[in-house]
Specification:
There is one protein chain. The chain is of the alpha/beta class and about 210 residues long. It has one domain. The chain contains 6 helices and 4 strands; from the N terminus they run E-H-E-H-E-E-H-H-H-H. Helix 1 links the parallel strand 1 and strand 2. The radius of gyration is 17 Å and the shape is globular.
Length: about 210
Amino acid sequence: MIADESTKRPTCPHCTRPQRNCICALVTSITNQVDTLILQHPDETRNAKNTAGLLHLSLKNSQIEIGETFDKQSLDNWLSFAGKQPLLLYPDIPEYKALGLATPPPPIAANELLPDKIRLVVIDATWRKSRKMIYLNPALQSLPRFAMAQTPASIYKIRKAHSENQLSTLEASCYALQQLEQRQSEYAPLLRAMSLFVEQQSSFVP
């Protein structure tokens, strides 16, 4: 039986979420110096607890692409956008050889590149699926990783974490942008919006 259009939950035309989960009021406009590319696994688009949507809507200089395996030419174009240096925001994978992954280049520290010359590449997926995305897209394996310094404890208590210090996509991206741009206060409003997002989602839990 095909559902009648009138019975479907109304959605917000801007954030595309169901209206009861609308995040538009939480969007915090930030002109990020470090351009940001978000590669989102398709499963995350249907998850109400996902933070990448709020991140993308808040960052003026950001692009989001959805998929698990990307067209090679398209991915290469996204990574080399405007001649910037792509940096993959991802922790070290000690077992990369056992997983059949290429040896990654040495990590790059925050003070090695000018902010406007960087494109930060963020993978929005569960830990297992993010590793699969790296495996399926060899161009990601060849990217230098960003060596992020110590970060605060996560406030993202509404999804199961792979480890105690694992951050949400929004948190990890904000902390990385803070370090790359050396602008700590610029991203504080978005992190506060993240706290309100967590409260909003927690209110839906019985």
